[in-house]
Amino acid sequence: MRVRWCVLLLVPLVGCVSQKAFDSKSLEARNLQQQYDEKAEQAKALEQKLAEATAANKAAEKEKTELESSLSQSDAERRALRKRVDELTALNQELSRSTEKLAAAKEALEKKSSEYENLAKSLKDEIKTGKIELSELKGRMVVKMKDKILFSSGSTKLNKEGQEALEKVAQALKDVQGKLIRVEGHTDNVPVPSDAKTEFASNWELSTTRALVVVKLLQEQGVPPTMLSALGYGEYQPIASNQTADGRSLNRRIEIVLAPAEQAPSAVVAASAKKPAAPAPAPAAKPAAKKK
After folding, report:
1. pLDDT in tens, 74-126
2. Using an 8 Å Cβ cutoff, are 168 and 118 in contact?
């Protein structure tokens, strides 16, 4: 009987211990589950960050590759640009040298001689009114006078106005040294009228005679005759079109040309005379006489 009661008392006691252990284990399991869930959330967040970091890394790698490619292209472009800049710099330097040479040549061409300055000063009124034109290039000076200032139509007699202008020209030319003074006559292409009043067969004779008249006046005014010459070009050296009245008026003119003295025919002859004559060939030796 005593044993039964002991068994009956032990059964409730065993049941009480198991419930506590169960509750303890249940609490522990819930804590573990909660920790697991938290760790899972953390892992998920870390995976998300890892994915974002991986994507960012890929994007960075791609951008790096593009930048490296761009830098390579930029280097090539920079080298090409530098080469072009060097070429343009060299070209600019060459152009500068050419410009300087052209400027020096232009200055030499436009440099006016003392004869030009004297004539320009003496004839400033005639030049200003357009009666006379004065030019100089490469040491060759030209005094251009329209024929209507000097001569009446078809005539070789100097007008008073033309004679006065030529006398001023002569005063400036009579002391010129080292120059050949050539008077050139020019006409338009209108034929000389073939009537009894005309003493010239063609414009050749008219232009040449007018040039001779001017040469004689210059000589009378003190210009050395050794420096003077006359040429008639007729209608064959026009400076304007003969199709218009204005053009024909420009073509009818007298030009007084001052050229370097070495261009004179006598200078050429003198230069030729200075050359030593070629030695005469030695006479052929006579054969020895035969003894008799």
Report:
1. 788 888 888 889 889 998 888 888 888 888 767 665 566 777 887 788 888 88
2. no
- Taking 3-state DSSP, the helix, strand and coil percentages for the chain, each rounded to the nearest 5, stand at 65, 10, 25
The answer to whether residues 214 and 147 touch, using CB atoms and an 8 Å cutoff, is: no
* pTM metric for this prediction: 0.55
The confidence band for 292, taking pLDDT boundaries of 50, 70 and 90, is: very low
- Name the amino acid, one letter, at 134: L
DSSP state of 151: B
Q: Are residues 137 and 253 in the same domain?
A: yes
Read off the tokens for 181: 């003074």
Strands (E), the chain: 132-137, 140-146, 179-186, 228-232, 253-260
Whether residue 172 is contained in a domain is answered as: yes
227 class by beta-carbon count within 10 Å (0-12 exposed, 13-18 middle, 19+ buried): buried
- Residues 12-42 as b or e (16 or more Cβ within 10 Å = b): eeeeeeeeeeeeeeeeeeeeeeeeeeeeeee
Cα dihedral sign for 44, 47, 53, 55?
Answer: negative
Q: Is residue 255 part of a domain?
A: yes
Say if residue 100 is in the same domain as residue 160: no
